[in-house]
Each structure stands twice: as structure tokens, then as C-alpha cells.
Amino acid sequence: MSQMNDELVRPGVSGGLADVVRARFLLKLLVRKELKVRYRGSVLGLLWSYVKPGVQFVVFYVALGVFLGLEQSPTNKSGLPNYAIYLFSGIVLINFFTEALGNASRSIVGNGGLIKKIYLPRQLFPIASVWVSAVHFFPQLVILLAACLFTGWHPSLLQLAAAVIGFIIVALLAAGLGLLFGAANVYFRDSENFVDMLLMIATWASPVMYAWTMVQNKLGEVWFTIYQLNPITVAVETFHYAFWLPTTDGNTSIPPHLLSLWVPVALIISAGILLWGQLTFRRLEGRFAQEL
């Protein structure tokens, strides 16, 4: 007779993000499912990953770069050189964040039918949404790289590393907030409206379309320090450092102490929000099936 384990294990107890690692196969299936469902019946399919940011870039470039004079030209020396690269490098990153957080915050409610039928690690749904957003991010990154190479892009290894770290900052932040609002949305559907408002603010609260020096000059050092505590701000600045700065003539600069101070601070804040989101998710997930 085989030896039986006397220890009782409570079924359906979550192991947190560790379950996501252990259920990697399920995560891949969810990512494939989300991609298939999203583009079912679509003519362009994944090409929308190119069309949407392209239209967004043209609108902002014409409105801000041409009409408001943010593009440097022979008659406008106060603008930003290669403003098109500056703008698009920020757009691709902020689009990744807005798509990842928006979809992750709705992922639990959107998969309510599956959650009520079987048990599987619920963290898989927000993380899968972030992963799908990363799939959409990389085609945009390819376009950015092509544009940078066309304008004489010669980055250093430090600049390339800064871009990778910037992406990690945004991914951690989106996953943490996605877990937090994904769980809260099960109990309070107003969370969706709050997330939409947060995403609108995030686009303008980071130097995606304007220079960081404008914030520093208008608000002063104290408020600029508070501004730099936003991990999205730091991540966008690392993308500008990696993709835009090497295409300029060297007369531009990055915020002081970006790599030595603000990047570590942003990593710590994003990791802290991920931990907060995970703890909140684990506390609330026990009644997901009943609430849904």
C-alpha cells in the first residue's frame, strides 16, 4: 500500500505570481486566444499594430510639431531637432502602457465565464494582457528602429541598455496596476472609468510630446522632482536617451541624474506597485467567482 500524505491542501489556493511561472503553458494559450479573438473577422489583423500608432503619430506631429512649432526648423531654432523621432519613441512606449493597463484591468471581468467554470491561476489573465500588448509593441519598435537608422542612429551599449530598462519599468508598472485594478473591477465597475481617466493623464503627464525642460522651466526644481517620480516619465526619457539623442547633433541633453538616480527609483516604485497589486489581488480573488 502506498504511503499517503496526511497533510491536507486547501484546493484553489493561489500561489501568486509564482503560479504564472508554473503555468507558462496556460499563459501561452491565453495569449494566443486573446490574439485570435481580437483579430477575428479583421481584414488587417496584426497590421493594426502599425496603423493605429501611425495615425496617432501623424496627428500629433502635425498639431504639435508643425502648428505649435515643436519641430526645429531653419526659422524655428527653439524647437526640438528630429522631433519626429522624439515623438514616436515616446508614443510607442506610452501605447504599450495604455493598452496593457486598459486590457489587464478588464481581463478578470472579461473572462468571467471561464473563471466561474474552472479554477486556474487568476493572475494569468492580467499578465496575459500585458504579454499581448508587448506583442503589439514590438512591430512599432521595428518601425522606430528603421526610422532611427535612416536618420543616422549610432547608439552606445549604455543607451541600448537604458531602452531595455525603460521597457521593464513600464511592464512592471502595467502588470502591477493591472492586477490591482483587475481585482478592484470585479467589485467596483467604476474602476474601468478611473483607469480610462488615468490613461488619459499618463499620456500628458510624461514628456511624450514636449521636452522635459519645459516642465523644469515652468514648475521649478521642487515640482520637477515630483514629476520625475512618475515611472512612466523616467521610462519615456530612457527611450528618448536611447533612440532620439543619438540622432541629434549633441546640443540636446537628458534630465540630470537620469541613469544614476531616477532609473533606480523608477524600478523600485514599479516593483513596489507590482507587489502591492499582487497582494491586493490575492486578497480579493477568493470571491471572484461569486461576484462575477
Automatic annotation (TrEMBL):
The keyword Lipoprotein does not apply. The keyword Transmembrane helix applies. The chain crosses the membrane at residues 43-63, 83-104, 124-153, 159-182, 194-213, 259-277. Keywords: Cell inner membrane, Cell membrane, Membrane, Transmembrane, Transmembrane helix, Transport. Residues 44-284 form the ABC transmembrane type-2 domain. One of its GO terms (cellular component) is plasma membrane. InterPro entries: ABC2_TM, ABC2_TM_bact-type. It is a multi-pass membrane protein. One of its GO terms (molecular function) is ABC-type transporter activity. One of its GO terms (biological process) is lipopolysaccharide transport. It is found in: Cell inner membrane; Cell membrane. Belongs to the ABC-2 integral membrane protein family. This is Transport permease protein. It comes from Arthrobacter psychrolactophilus. The lineage of its organism: Bacteria, Bacillati, Actinomycetota, Actinomycetes, Micrococcales.
